[in-house]
């Protein structure tokens, strides 16, 4: 069982409306509980609408069971509407002539959808492509031309190739099921009679080209089918209709180009050849991908500090470690003087505080009770330094 805690802060002086992903039940995850504050005042099939007053915070808490694929939850057949939606051309997944031409070249004379998809997967894992974050532009066509991008870019191009040959496919946005802000994106394609098959070309590329401990052919191939690592899905696909009653201007084409930056963010995101003002514009009339939320500002006064929000995924083990760390924080200052009293050797003090310091560093790194753990750590280090010098 995983505990997901997500929050976002409205720093602006105007209300903020969130299009917040409704965590789905899938063949590989079961959402046992989910609460949202403030309470949603509207919903679509894929999202809730939540209004956050100025200076306030919205949060979502969910218990998610991550498990092996459950055949009983598979979707062996798609409805006509679903098939049409998952083979459609969109801003981020355009079915342009260059996309289709490359898909035909890679497919060669293959006719089986799974074999075709595997050919696309192997192409993206090859030396002709590079993993790079941040990417210059989010979208399949940019990935095709630049041959470099992040996890989303790899997924977009894979989905575009599949759709261009009539294979239903979709991007998946979520997080690794442990830690803070471990955002990730991958893809799925659909085979009639089988259901959705997950594919992670970007993680496969990293396994193939980086110095991973498990670098092997098996490690690469494991990213096609039953994916490695535990994940939580936020949303399927990347573009959603604007909710009823919500109006946002469309972002214009960005003739100047440029790249997205991880060092300094100006509140815009380059997507599909457009410079989208985050929270103030739509992408070709659609809400961009929900990971897990897109903030909307009625007056267009978007705050560049607000992006995806912040989240933590905890396991029972990490929760136990956190509780242990809290206890050590509270007791360290009281116990340390007694442990170090009347000892002429500093080794005893070093050993006594070693475990506590490790817990303190872990608490700070995971941003749990930062003020308490940081203050206690400073006190411990100061006491130990004084003891060593005397």
Automatic annotation (TrEMBL):
InterPro entries tied to this protein: Papain-like_cys_pep_sf (IPR038765), Transglutaminase-like (IPR002931)
The keyword Membrane appears for this protein: yes
Which key words are in the record?
Answer: Membrane, Transmembrane, Transmembrane helix
Q: Spell out where the chain crosses the membrane.
A: 320-340, 346-363, 370-389
Q: Which SUPFAM superfamilies match?
A: Cysteine proteinases (SSF54001)
- Please list the residue ranges annotated as the Transglutaminase-like domain: 143-203
Classify the source by domain of life: Bacteria
Extent of the signal sequence: none
Glycosyltransferase in keyword set: no
UniProt protein name: Transglutaminase-like domain-containing protein
């Amino acid at each position: 069982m995983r505990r997901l805690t997500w929050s976002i802060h409205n720093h602006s002086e105007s209300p903020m409306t969130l299009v917040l992903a409704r965590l789905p039940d899938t063949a590989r995850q079961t959402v046992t509980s989910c609460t949202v504050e403030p309470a949603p005042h509207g919903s679509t099939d894929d999202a809730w609408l939540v209004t956050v007053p100025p200076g306030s915070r919205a949060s979502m808490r969910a218990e998610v069971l991550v498990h092996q694929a459950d055949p009983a939850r598979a979707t062996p057949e798609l409805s006509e509407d679903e098939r049409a939606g998952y083979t459609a051309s969109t801003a981020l997944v355009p079915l342009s002539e260059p996309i289709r031409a490359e898909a035909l070249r890679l497919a060669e004379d293959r006719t089986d959808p799974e074999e075709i998809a595997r050919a696309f997967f192997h192409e993206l894992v090859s030396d002709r492509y590079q993993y790079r974050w941040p990417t210059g532009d989010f979208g399949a066509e940019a990935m095709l031309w630049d041959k470099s991008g992040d996890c989303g870019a790899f997924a977009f191009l894979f989905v575009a190739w599949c759709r261009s040959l009539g294979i239903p496919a979709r991007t998946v946005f979520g997080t690794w099921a442990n830690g803070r802000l471990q955002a990730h994106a991958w893809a799925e394609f659909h085979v009639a009679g089988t259901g959705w098959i997950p594919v992670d070309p970007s993680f496969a590329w990293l396994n193939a080209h980086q110095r991973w401990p498990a670098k092997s052919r098996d490690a690469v191939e494991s990213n096609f089918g039953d994916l490695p690592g535990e994940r939580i899905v936020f949303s399927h696909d990347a573009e959603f209709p604007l909710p009823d009653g919500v109006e946002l201007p469309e972002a214009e084409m960005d003739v100047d180009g440029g790249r997205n930056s991880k060092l300094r963010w100006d509140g815009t995101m380059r997507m599909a050849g457009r410079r989208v003002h985050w929270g103030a514009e739509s992408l070709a009339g659609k809400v961009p991908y929900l990971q897990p939320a897109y903030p909307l500002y009625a007056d267009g006064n978007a705050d560049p500090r607000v992006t995806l929000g912040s989240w933590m995924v905890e396991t029972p083990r990490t929760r136990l470690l956190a509780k242990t760390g809290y206890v050590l924080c509270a007791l360290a200052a009281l116990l340390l003087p007694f442990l170090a009293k009347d000892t002429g050797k500093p080794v005893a003090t070093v050993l006594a505080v070693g475990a506590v310091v490790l817990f303190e560093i872990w608490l700070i790194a995971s941003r749990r009770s930062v003020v308490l753990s940081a203050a206690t750590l400073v006190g411990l280090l100061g006491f130990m330094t004084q003891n060593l010098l005397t």
